[in-house]
Amino acid sequence: MITNLAGGVRAFTSNAFLVDGDRTVLVDTGANFDVVDRLQSDVENLDAVVLTHTHPDHVGNLEAVTEAFDVDVWGFDPSHPGVDHGIEDGQTVRLGDHEYVALHTPGHKDDHLCLYSPEAGVLFAGDLVFQNGSFGRTDLEEGDRETLIESIDRLAERIADDLTEMHTGHGPSVTTDPAEHVELAGQMARQM
Predict the structure, then answer these.
(1) Domain 2-191 sits in which CATH superfamily?
(2) I want to staple 29 with a disulfide (CB 3.0 to 4.6 A). Which of 14, 20, 55, 61 is the partner?
(3) What is the pTM of this model?
(4) Which pLDDT does position 160 carry in this prediction?
């Protein structure tokens, strides 16, 4: 089961997805709201935190979560403060009841990862792509439009047409033809 703990929050935050199952994992911690309280009302323990990337809106609550649950943090760049273990491009990680392939997808930020489970038909897209063809900003430090387009293309080639859920770093999750939203994001990124 996947729950967005940042749902309904009226503060500047990313989404924070609790993936419950064999291995209970929080994908991104969000910022500027009490995610620990929301976690404690949903689960007794947390096995890990996995980060799509380390922009402040995605890791603002990281210290509070690690202190409350005594968990390790996984991300692409283990040299970043707060990241305990590196996840390499192509490495498999378990979220909930399924295995996800980590795809290094820079362009929005150098340490950006997408997490894709062909078996579950689920994609955690972070800030690479969003609903209706929107895509991640490239005007921030480490942002690069051409690299972002390459990452979107790589993701589009990797995901299957039977992708059923795309959970994005901001805004609503996509459950109707999410692969089309990824393809549209690639087209839109080339036009702007």
Answers:
(1) Ribonuclease Z/Hydroxyacylglutathione hydrolase-like (3.60.15.10)
(2) 61
(3) 0.96
(4) 82
